[in-house]
Amino acid sequence: MASHILVIFSFLAITCSMAAAGIEPGPLQDFCVADPNSSDCINPKLVKADNFFSGGLHVPGNTSNPSGSAVTSVSVAQIPGLNTLGITLLRFDFAKGGLVTPHTHPRASEIVTVLDGSILVGFVSSFPDNRLFSKVLQTGDVFVFPIGLTHFLSNVGNGTAAAIASLNSQNPGFIPIPSTVFGTNPPIADDVLAKAYQVDKLTIAKLQARFKR
C-alpha cells in the first residue's frame, strides 16, 4: 500500500512540474513527421530534408483588412517535421496603426522580436490584480507573453512594422477576446453581456453585429 501511495505521489509531482513548466511531453524518437493522410508518422526511411523546411517567411503578409495586420504561421501545417517538437513560429506584419487584437494562447508562452518599426505590446496579469505590463518595442527588441494571459500588439510608428514570434507548442491555440465574446454562434444573451460590461443592450447588439459571422 505504501509503495502505491509513493507511486501516486511521484506521478503527481511529475505532472505538476510539467504543468508548472508549461511544456509539452518530450518526443520518444528523433522526429515524427506528420502524415497528412493519417494520424501516424511518415515512415522514417521516407523522410526528406524538405519535410523540415518552409520558405517565404521574408514576404510581408497582406495588411489590407480592418485590423491592418497579418499573421503568417509556420506550424505543422507548413512544416510536417515540426510534429511533436512543441514549437510554432509566427510573422506579424502591420500597416500604419495596425493591431493584433487582444487574445490569448491557452497552451503556449510567446516570445516576440521586432524586425522593423515601433510596436506597442502588452499583457494583463490574472484576476484580481489585472496589471498591464506594456512597452513600446523598437527594431531588435524582445518581449515575452506568459502562457494563457491576454496580450496584444499595435503598430505605433509612422510607417509599417514587422515582428517574428515563437510559441512553445505545436498547437498553441488562439482565442481573440472581442470575437470570442461578441461573435459566438449562437450569441451570448444580451442581458448577460450588458450586465457583464455594464452597458445597455443596444450597445451590445451593435457590438454583436460587428462580429457576426
Features:
213 residues, alpha+beta, 5-stranded antiparallel β-sheet, 10 strands, Cupin_1, secreted, disulfide bond
CA-based gyration radius:
21 Å
Q: What overall geometry do the principal axes of the alpha carbons give?
A: globular
Tell me the number of strands.
10
State the end-to-end distance: 56 Å
The number of helical runs is 4
Largest sheet: 5 strands, antiparallel
Query: Order of SSEs, N→C?
Result: HEEEEEEEEEEHHH
Strand order of the largest sheet: 1-2-9-4-7
Low-confidence stretches: 5-20
Helix content range of the residues, please? 10-25%
Task: Give the overall average pLDDT.
Answer: 90
How large is the share of residues in beta strands?
A: 25-35%
Alpha-beta content class: alpha+beta
Family: Belongs to the germin family.
InterPro entries: Cupin_1 (IPR006045), Germin (IPR001929), Germin_Mn-BS (IPR019780), RmlC-like_jellyroll (IPR014710), RmlC_Cupin_sf (IPR011051)
Function: May play a role in plant defense. Probably has no oxalate oxidase activity even if the active site is conserved.
Disulfide bonds: 32-41
